[in-house]
Amino acid sequence: MKKAIILAGALSISVAAHAQKGKVNSANSFLSQGLLDKAKEQIDIDLAAQDENTVQWDKAWFTRGRIYQSLAESPLPMYNELEPDAPRIALEAYRQALKFTAMDKNAYEDEVRDQLPGIKDLYFNTGVQAYQNGQQEPAYEAFRACVAIDSLAQAATKDTLVYYLVGETALNVGKPEVAVPYLQVAADLGFDGALSTLATAYSRQGMVDKAEQILTDALAKDPTNGDLLIQVVNFYLIDKDDPEKAIGYIDEVIEKDPENVSFWHAKGVTHNKLGQVDQEREAYQKALSIDPNFYPSLYNLGAVYINQASVCFTAANQIPPSQAAAYDAKVAEGKKNLSDAEPFLARALEQKPDDVDVMRALIEVYVKTQQYDKANTLKARIDELEGGE
């Protein structure tokens, strides 16, 4: 009697196991027919893969992965909407399948690895879409998952684009220390732009000397690389704050592309940092000879003349009363600078009609040149703009 009870219990377990595995096989059948909703429902994935009879069965996990991957890849919204997180669930299922496949003599190892490139494509496309939408954190997570998938798939080569994108997005979300190893891989594999981005990652960690070494070494190897040269200029202007070194590289950039208005503007900004007013003014004038409506140079050139006017007025106030002629000459020089500033600032305002900074600069010019009506008009416009905020 006792044996009969034991036998009955064993039979019950066997029947349950076969019934649960039958659901997995039925799900595969529906999957092959493209009936994804029924496949998902039949296998009852969330439960079947946790059933004590299937939890260590690689086929169950493999089936779960294929169904969820198919849901994500389907062109039909009705299937996509069944599980928005389908790629992640599919990837986890494949991980579990690989974990348990060794217990079944590697029955599904090759099949699982064959599916992984499709999962990677899903993550990559998600990352690209997030990146294009300015959603850097989701993009970073998606691209990082691509690297993990390649590792799981035992990919023979590293995807340099993906490594670069992980590094760039890590940098964009404030993780320069995470970005470095990925960018280093991309750079070692020759990905264009990786070295300059790697230098930025070091700079943001305060390792400016390391960044400088990377950039200057790279430029020494590829002195005709215009993009790299621009990166070196920006490094010395922004990260290193060394305009003396920057100006030499700017001249090299201009030599390669003398009609680039941005390069001439950058030259003007650099001369400003060096306190070289005449060269600064000449650089902005050259920029405007290329593009007369280039706002940054219009505004900066107007500011140059205003600053020079202030220097003149300050100097005039230091001239003794006995030297009236010298005083009048210096004041006249100041007013001439203000008059020179006016047309550039007016043209800048034409480019950006609501730019309050330009209006305030023009108001200073108008007040000091007794053009009070124009000054009052701009004051009213500023009040209107700021009152509407």
Question: What this model shows, in words?
Answer:
With 389 residues, the chain is an all-alpha fold. It has 3 domains: 15-153, Alpha Horseshoe (Serine Threonine Protein Phosphatase 5, Tetratricopeptide repeat), CATH 1.25.40; 157-241, Serine Threonine Protein Phosphatase 5, Tetratricopeptide repeat (Alpha Horseshoe), CATH 1.25.40.10; 306-389, Serine Threonine Protein Phosphatase 5, Tetratricopeptide repeat (Alpha Horseshoe), CATH 1.25.40. It is 78% helix and 0% strand. It has 20 helices and no strands. The protein has helices spanning 2-32, 36-43, 45-48, 58-73, 77-80, 86-101, 109-132, 136-152, 160-172, 176-188, 194-203, 208-221, 226-239, 243-256, 261-273, 277-290, 295-317, 324-351, 356-368, 372-387. α1 runs antiparallel to α2 (36-43), α7 runs antiparallel to α8 (136-152) and α11 runs antiparallel to α12. The chain is elongated and about 110 Å long. It starts with a helix and ends with a helix. Mean pLDDT is 88; it is low at 1-19.
Short description:
The protein is built from 20 helices and no strands. The chain is mostly helical.
Itemize the secondary structure elements and their pairings.
Elements: H1 2-32, H2 36-43, H3 45-48, H4 58-73, H5 77-80, H6 86-101, H7 109-132, H8 136-152, H9 160-172, H10 176-188, H11 194-203, H12 208-221, H13 226-239, H14 243-256, H15 261-273, H16 277-290, H17 295-317, H18 324-351, H19 356-368, H20 372-387
Helix pairs in contact: 1-2, 1-4, 2-4, 4-6, 4-7, 6-7, 7-8, 8-9, 9-10, 9-11, 10-11, 11-12, 12-13, 13-14, 14-15, 15-16, 16-17, 17-18, 18-19, 19-20
